[in-house]
Design a protein that fits this description.
It is built from 7 helices and 10 strands. With about 220 residues, the chain is α+β, with helices and mostly antiparallel strands. The protein has 2 domains: about 5-110, Nucleotide cyclase, GGDEF domain (Alpha-Beta Plaits); about 120-215, Alpha-Beta Plaits (2-Layer Sandwich), CATH 3.30.70. A 5-stranded mixed beta sheet has the order 2-3-1-4-5, sandwiched between helices. The chain has a 5-stranded mixed beta sheet with strand order 7-8-6-9-10. The radius of gyration is 17 Å and the shape is globular. The protein starts with a strand and ends with a strand.
Length: about 220
Amino acid sequence: MPRYTVIRLEDAWSHFTSKSVSTRYLQAYNLRVNWLINRILKPHGGVAFSLNTGEYIALTNTVSRGIHVEFQARLEEEARVRVRVASVVASNPVVALLSASQYFKKNTFYYEEGGGEAYHIISLLLPFSSGYDAYVAYSTLSYSVLKSIERYGGLVVERAGWALTILLGGGLEEAVSELSRIGFVGAGSSRIGLQAYVNSLKALRRALKKGKPVVVSEAN
């Protein structure tokens, strides 16, 4: 099973929500913290995504325990908030989030030994719509995506317009087949989290040119 690291910035999020700050401010704060996390993880092959809830999930097969400890301290210093970190080995990202929430009840830092299997990431581009029906179309398609990935322990971790990034726990071929009925699909696999993400984007670009799903994997 692969390793997932869940990062929670409790103090900041509870403070902001109690102060009822604007959505734009929260988005800007999330982007800033996400940038800080990825700046630390990238040299070690990790990549993180904001869940827009005060939590972030990172793919950290190649990030050692020592780097996790250093990473937590640096993030607390730079973000100026209390940071909880739980790095767990799990079958899928949904299970990882549930496990981390249990560890956070008693720990500010937890690191589980093991892990190392490949990550599977899908980059999906939904059919574009414009005008009055665009919101309805987007909502309907997004719901279809969520239902499709549910059985594979999938989690949508990034939304950029009509493009979605999905972490899968398994069933890559089946998920690609199902999602290709909804939009253009590019899938990437690698035991290095950052490489799996890059592979998925590379695959999506090829899928758009070929008009069919593409999977890019590396034996890393």
